[in-house]
Amino acid sequence: MKRASIDLGTNTCLLLIKEETPSGERILHDESNVVRLGQGVAQSGLLGEDAMARARACLARYVETAKSFGVNPQQILAVGTAQARDASNAHDFFTDLEKTLGLHFRVLTGDEEAKATFLGATLPSISPTTMVVMDIGGGSTELVAMPESNGNIWGESLPIGAVKITEKFLPSDPVTDEEFWAAEEAINQSLSRMKSWRDSLDQKISGRPSFVAVAGTAVTLAMLQLEMKEFKSAELDGVKITRGDAHRLVEELKWRSVAERKTMTGMEVKRADVILAGALIFWRVMEELRFDEALISTRGLRYGVFSL
Fold first, then answer.
1. In the prediction, which pLDDT does 134 show?
2. Can you give the CATH number for the domain in which 41 is found?
3. pLDDT at residue 149 tops 70
4. Is the pLDDT assigned to residue 124 strictly greater than 80?
5. Do 226 and 279 share a domain, yes or no?
6. Do 163 and 248 fall within a single domain?
7. What is the span of the domain harbouring residue 95?
8. Same domain (yes/no): 123, 200
């Protein structure tokens, strides 16, 4: 049986098509494009016309791709995340998509997004009960664990994301020290409410938790660290980024202009303007919540939505 999912996030739009067989699943198509649907939402509370046009064009292509694999639009499990929760005109946008493209979108709550991210991110070498997952999106960051065998997900969705932090705190190019410090302070404040959660992990998980990072920011940082010119999931899954590595990457990105970032080996060009904010969130999570190293997973929400 063939199944497909679409994850329409604040920054990216992802399509996954897989085939489920008695011997397991086979990935037929896995694609990601930056559409920046959440551009300007933090200021206006609305999805912009240009942003909706970019997303609509991408989704139209995805529908045709799915059809080429024998999956109809009505069969696609399509989900919206932070920007869909934040923008007051998101409902009208999704209603229009259903009329024009046949896609029915489910807007996930923060808890549902966190659960799907966790379920999708699991690396085969790690027991789920010892794993902590971080997903840095454009509009929010999820931190979740499943420390007990009953399958309950434990964590939170925080209102900090690469696009949101960039638009609110990092307008200059390159950023100023004052802007950078303000962004860092805002991230630290948001993370402060997770410190008791982090303390409880040590009591609930025997031994050191395995910290796993998913989604575009994490993958881009791994590609920058490896100076990898092309995305290769098999080579990226399980790559280790230490707390020191994360700090170094932040410092390398901080002093560069967006144009200079675009020339870095491993950089996704359309992510260059928000990658500093994403890297800053990545580093501050590791510092504030005491994670020494992160393992990269190229999977995540688009895989986990099938289990909701």
1. 93
2. 3.30.420.40
3. no
4. no
5. yes
6. yes
7. 2-107
8. yes
- Determine if the peptide bond prior to 174 is cis (ω within 30°): yes
Verify that 183 and 283 share a domain, yes or no.
Answer: yes
pLDDT cut 90: percent of the chain above it: 57
Q: What's the average model confidence in pLDDT over 55-72?
A: 96
Q: What is the residue-wise DSSP string for the chain?
A: -EEEEEEE-SSEEEEEEEEEETTEEEEEEEEEEE--TTTTHHHHSS--HHHHHHHHHHHHHHHHHHHHTT--GGG-EEEE-HHHHH-TTHHHHHHHHHHHH-PPEEEPPHHHHHHHHHHHH--TTS-GGGEEEEEE-SS-EEEEE--STT---EEEEES--HHHHHHHH--SSSPPHHHHHHHHHHHHHHHHTTHHHHHHHHHHSSS--EEEEEHHHHHHHHHHHHT-SS--HHHHTT-EEEHHHHHHHHHHHHTS-HHHHHTSTT--GGGTTTHHHHHHHHHHHHHHTT--EEEEES--HHHHGGG-
Residue 103 near residue 6 (C-beta atoms within 8 A): yes
Number of domains into which the chain is organized: 2
What CATH number should be reported for the domain holding residue 146? 3.30.420.150
Radius of gyration, CA atoms only, the chain? 18
Range scoring the smallest mean pLDDT among 86-90, 98-102, 170-174, 241-245: 86-90
Question: How much is the pTM?
Answer: 0.81
Q: Residue 150: its pLDDT value, please?
A: 64
CB 175 within 8 A of CB 256: no
CA 190, chain centre distance (Å): 17
Check residue 295 and give its pLDDT.
94
For residue 289, give the amino acid letter.
L
Q: 180 with 295, same domain?
A: yes
Which pLDDT does position 185 carry in this prediction? 96
**Lowest mean pLDDT across 85-94, 168-177, 265-274:** 85-94
